[in-house]
Write a structure and sequence with these properties.
CATH superfamily: Vaccinia Virus protein VP39
Radius of gyration: 18 Å
Domain Methyltransferase type: 51-146
Shape: globular
Number of strands: 8
Mean pLDDT: 91
Number of domains: 1
GO molecular function: methyltransferase activity
Keywords: Methyltransferase, Transferase
CATH class: Alpha Beta
Number of helices: 11
Largest sheet: 8 strands, mixed
CATH topology: Rossmann fold
Order of helices and strands: HHHEHEHEEHEHHEHHHEE
Strand content: 25-35%
Helix content: 40-55%
Low-confidence stretches: none
Pfam family, one: Methyltransf_11
Protein name: Class I SAM-dependent methyltransferase
Distance between the termini: 33 Å
């Protein structure tokens, strides 16, 4: 399993290293309606030390940093961190940047008051290890906010969405189910507080162009969507415009947890 995990993580580094700037500029990452909700749920305090795992373009760090003492922004991809720093240096000065694997965090036990991870965990090959590390470095009573795309219990929709993501982005591992996240968190000593699911609408063209590397790959993704049955297309809200895919939506889940004291 380790060798396979390292191979998957290598794909993540390659994918995000090549496309780092696109994730800083991505509208769906930079302006998601979940960002202000993260602040509302976290109720940050000025003395807090925060960890933002797989920070990507740094958008969660940008939201949180004005409210807390310090944010540690981590990512497995150094090019991604460099782009995040260029972006965030315009706005904040209380951020430290550390290259780190979400499944092997380089921090001492019980270090952080709040941990966040947004739109990244579907790239993690060992989500239980990730959740275990979150629990380890979180202070008792500390909060953890996870945001990611999920799949429903319907196995056909699950297979369609995860295949779609993999066809479009070869570093994708899996969109997990809500029940899986809750179970892993519970086993790691993180108590569930609340959650919400929203239909996240994505403009198709920038979404597919962000990670694909050839015209053939784009066509394969399009064919996968066009050939899906009516039930799946309806669930994913496929919108067409003059024969081209205009937009669709995914289920984005937010979960708030608190480490047991």
């Amino acid at each position: 399993m380790r060798n396979n995990s390292e191979e998957l993580k290598s794909k993540v580094k390659q994918q995000f290293g090549t496309n780092a700037k696109k994730y800083v500029d991505s509208k769906s990452h930079a302006y998601g309606s979940d960002l202000p909700i993260i602040i509302s749920w976290a109720e940050p305090k000025e003395y807090w030390v925060v960890l933002d795992i797989a920070t990507g373009g740094g958008h969660v760090t940008k939201q949180l940093s004005p409210y807390v003492k310090q944010v540690f922004a981590t990512d497995i991809t150094i090019e991604m961190l460099n782009e995040a720093k260029k972006f965030l240096d315009q706005y904040v000065s209380n951020v430290s940047y550390i290259v780190a694997d979400a499944e092997r965090l380089p921090f001492l036990d019980e270090t952080f008051d709040l941990i966040t991870c947004r739109i990244a965990a579907h790239h993690f090959p060992n989500p239980q290890n990730f959740i275990g590390e979150v629990s380890r470095v979180l202070k008792p009573g500390g909060k953890f906010i996870l945001v990611d795309n999920i799949v429903p219990e319907d196995e056909r929709i699950d297979e369609f969405i995860n295949t779609l993501e993999l066809l479009r982005d070869h570093s994708h591992v899996r969109c997990y189910k809500e029940g899986e996240w809750k179970s892993w968190a519970n086993n790691a000593g993180l108590g569930f507080i609340k959650s919400q699911i929203r239909k996240k609408t994505l403009d198709y063209k920038p979404w597919v162009q962000r990670t694909t590397t050839s015209v053939d790959q784009v066509l394969i993704v399009k064919e996968h969507i066009i050939n899906a049955d009516e039930h799946i297309q309806e669930y994913c809200g496929i919108k067409m415009n003059q024969g081209e895919i205009a937009s669709f939506h995914l289920d984005e889940w937010m979960g708030l947890f608190e480490k047991n004291s």
